[in-house]
Amino acid sequence: MATLATIFDRIFPAKVLEQAAPRIQDEAETCRLRRFPNEDIYFSVKRIDNTRVVRESDPATRGVCWQTIGSCVVAAVLLIGILLPSMYSLLAGYRIEALHQERQRLEIERAALQLDEAKMLSPARLERLAQEQQFVDPLPQKVVYLDGRPEGTLARR
Amino acid sequence: MDTQGTHRVHLLARMGFLWAALIVVRLLQLQIVQHDKYRTLAQQQQEKIVEMRAPRGTILDRAGQPLAMSLPVDSVCVDPLRIPDLSVAADILGRILGLDSQDLLGKMKFAADGRRGFLWIKRHITADESRRLRDLNLDWVEFRTESMRFYPDKQLAAHVLGGVDFEEKGNAGIEQSLDEDLEGHPGTLRVTSDVKQRGFNSKVDTEPLPGKIVKLTVDSRIQFVAEQELEKAIKTHHVKTGSVVAMDPKTGDVLALANYPTYDPNEPPRHGEDPMARDDLAATTPYEPGSVFKVITIAAALETTHLRLETIIPCGNGVITLFGRTIHDHSRYASLPMEDVLARSSNIGAINIGLKVGDANMYEYMRRFGFGKSTGLPLPGESAGMVRPLKYWQKSSIGSVAMGHEISVTALQLAQACSVIANGGFRVKPRLLRDTAPETPQRVLQPETAITMRRMMEGVVIKPYGTGHRYAHIPGYTSGGKTGTAQIFDHHTHQYTHFYNASFMGFAPVTNPAVVVVVTLNGTVGTAGYGGPTSAPVFREVAAAALRILDVPKDLPDDLPADDNDKGKADENDVAIADLGPSVPLPLVQPNSPDQRLLLGPPAPESPSELAGPMVPNFQGKSVRDVIQESAALGIPVEFAGSGIARAQIPPPGAILPLGERVRIQFGR
User: What is the pLDDT along chain A (157 residues), one digit of tens a residue?
Assistant: First the structure.
């Protein structure tokens, strides 16, 4: 506890007091400092050993202290709990927007692939390939459509 | 108590309170009074409006193959005022985008001098160009995403599809007629972004509306064959233009519509390009049909008169005089059964039949078959053709009309008319869009009439003297049709020229027609330019491909013996001579006119008594029982193959059967 005596002890260490004490040279007045000039006031320094002094526990104060700590923790948790979803939603928002852009990019890529597929399946190209491979036109009734539709392009003879 | 100290404490407290009060007032002002203002400022800073792409609708063929589709492409623009070095910039952009650097530099300097902050460099660049330019990370280059139309099959079905301009607005064909449906409406997206312009929240302001997907009835495989065969015939016969229409007679689905010349819709029109390349001749350009129209004449006769297949029609020995005009046939016939009037394409026979039908009935049936009004296809500029109103008909008009003159029709109308015969007598409206609900067909002919007409048109193909014989026969299938060779009228000289519109209008198979094909070549010359040798082979190839693709079962064996004795003499009968009617400025046909192109008939055949063996009769078109009875009566040994109706025979009718030989007859259903 920060009392005047402890502060005094800190400011004025025991060595000074010991230096001050021999001037009295009186065994009965070992704690007595020399008097101020022209004064009859004497200070006494009494060394008190408080090391064995234990502060009496104060349940009320302890309770208040713990309550304060608990309140602060709860407040912090609540604050974090309130802010955390919005933080996660912000991060999710970034992710969502990135996915939107990725989807747009993939849609464009898919359209480009569909165009390439259509070019590769063009009748002119198939005819040219068929001629290069010396294919012949299948006869009707000799073709089985793998996907079950006559309109389909997948067929085998 | 130290009052001075207390006073100081109070003073300090008041100052602190005042300071706090000022803060609170300022907070109230900012967050409550000026709330909307700062919120707006924050939105402007944090939010940006992004356009959501709505591509133009895809056009698919019958099988779902894309014929036209839109893709986003980059376009490059710059701010000339931000470019540090114009010449370097022009050099970089010129090399990557394949542009003339000097020309580009000139444009950029002009823009910079005029303090313009925007300049298009190149629009619709390729993906490779875009990637290379983006990799340079030039801050004065800006990319704008635009939409571009692609036609992956290039010129396939170009006249049906049409095209779009640079703003993706349809300017021809389906692209134009269905522009509102195909056009997409972009939406807007409000994106909230952070200081680094990364979006973290978005809200759709306006939903994008993509263009509607249009599915056509056109089969790209049949279309390809039609275009290929048409081009081959055009080049073989050295003509300039032609068209092919293939149609399902029952549903009216247009399976193919090909014109020549054609174009690639991916390429914009160029200076000096043939303007006819972009004309949809089959739909927009009517012409006088000539002899193919005899089908209508005879159909009307079957319905309105007592004339039948076997009715003998006088053919005047190749000459007729009608209201002061003299008309000749190529071959001299005294008379012909009505079915042979069609097979031999006798003009005089057709005129006599037309006279029996009469003006009113003829006009009525022309309208019933759909002539004189457009078919209603969503093709811009479709012509209704020309059918002169009855009150304006001259006395000799019936003669012209019976032969297919004084009337102009489009190939589409001919296909529609032929479908009437092919589907049992109903006029079915042609359709180009799969989603269009078919209209209720209108009955035009009685079923018996339609069946009779089919048999007669089959005779054009199977009879050795038929004008379509040998040219229109499809291996494995029965087929029927009519050739046409109409002189082309020159509006400058007001005279008919020596050029023909050579046509063939036909269907296959005969018993249950699955496809109708009309072929027209414009500008043929000479006997080799008649409908039979020019258009009928195209019909044969296109119909054969269509039947194969549509998986139609064959009704004839493939190994039907070919008739080697045919010399193609009958082709000469096919020309419809347009020399009737004072309302049409036609030259009178003079027997000794130097530009007369009518020929006398062939010499009389040799006397059969000088040859061994009997003369083979014509068994074609007869049933097995009839053939047995007739051959037994004549004492002619016959060998049968197949069942049904006699389709072909060897030796041909009129030939002398050597002793000990048999007549081989192929039957089919």
Answer: 667 767 777 777 666 555 654 555 555 556 666 666 666 666 777 888 888 888 888 889 999 999 999 999 999 999 999 999 999 999 999 999 899 889 988 988 898 999 999 999 999 999 999 999 988 877 666 666 666 555 544 443 3
Q: Tens digits of per-residue pLDDT, B566-592?
A: 444 444 556 655 443 333 333 222 223
Task: Identify the CA nearest to B432 among candidates B180, B175, B209, B225.
Answer: B175
Residue A87 near chain B (CB below 8 Å): no
Structure tokens at B244: 């092919």
Tell me the angle at which helices B220-236 and A123-132 cross, rounded to the nearest 10 degrees.
Answer: 70
- Residue B34 resides in a domain: no
Is B29 among the domain residues?
A: no
Rounded to a whole number of angstroms, the distance from the CA of A139 to the nearest CA of chain B is: 7
Q: Do residues B199 and B324 share a domain? A: no
DSSP B268: P
Chain B residues in contact with A119 by the CB 8 A cut-off are 152-153
CA-based nearest residue in chain A for residue B550:
A150
Q: Is the pLDDT of residue B472 over 70?
A: yes
Q: Is B29 exposed, middle or buried (0-12, 13-18, 19+ CB in 10 A)?
A: exposed
- The band of B515, judged by pLDDT with boundaries at 50, 70 and 90, is very high
Residue in B257, B261, B263, B231 with CA at minimum distance from that of residue B245: B257
Residues listed for chain A: 157
Tell me how far apart the alpha carbons of residues B201 and B191 are, in angstroms, rounded to a whole number. 6
- Name the minimum distance, in Å, from the CA of B96 to any CA of chain A: 22
Cα B662 to chain centroid distance, Å, stands at 47
The CATH number given to whatever domain includes residue B443 is: 3.40.710.10
d(CA A124, CA A132) in angstroms, rounded, equals 12
Same domain flag for B257 and B206: no
Size of interface A-B (CB pairs under 8 A): 83
Q: Which residue of A lies nearest to B477 if distances are taken between CA atoms?
A: A140
Cβ–Cβ under 8 Å, residues B265 and B67: no
All residues at 6 or more sequence positions from B19 whose CB lies less than 8 Å from its CB, including other chains: none
Whether B304 is covered by a domain: the verdict is: yes
pTM listed for this prediction: 0.75
CB pair distance less than 8 Å for B72 and A115: no
DSSP letter for B292, please. Answer: G
With tokens 């085998």, the residue in question is A156
Domain that holds residue B86: 50-215
Question: What SS3 class is residue B458?
Answer: helix
Instruction: Please tell me which of the candidates B153, B198, B548 has its beta carbon nearest to residue A137.
Output: B548
Q: How far apart are CA B471 and CA B461, in angstroms?
A: 8
Interatomic CA distance for residues B482 and B459, integer angstroms: 9
B248 and B194 co-located in one domain:
no
- Domain with B654 in it: what CATH number? 3.30.10.20
Does residue A56 belong to the interface with chain B, where contact is any CB pair within 8 Å? no
- B340/B209 same-domain check: no
Instruction: Report how far Cα B125 is from the mean position of its chain's Cα atoms.
Output: 32
Question: Predicted confidence band at B604 (pLDDT cuts at 50, 70, 90)?
Answer: very low
Domain count, chain B: 3
B202-224 in b/e form (b: 16+ CB < 10 A) is beeeeebebbbebbbbbbbbbbb
B517 in the same domain as B478: yes
Strand partners, B668: B645
Does B149 map to a domain? yes
On whether both B371 and B482 belong to a single domain, the answer is: yes
Shared domain check, B310 and B259:
yes
Q: Are residues B491 and B459 in the same domain?
A: yes
Dump the DSSP string for B399-447.
HHHHTT-SEEB-HHHHHHHHHHHHTTSEEPPPB-BTTSPPPPPEE-S-H
B498 close to B533: Cβ distance less than 8 angstroms: no
Q: What is the CATH number of the domain that holds B121?
A: 3.90.1310.10
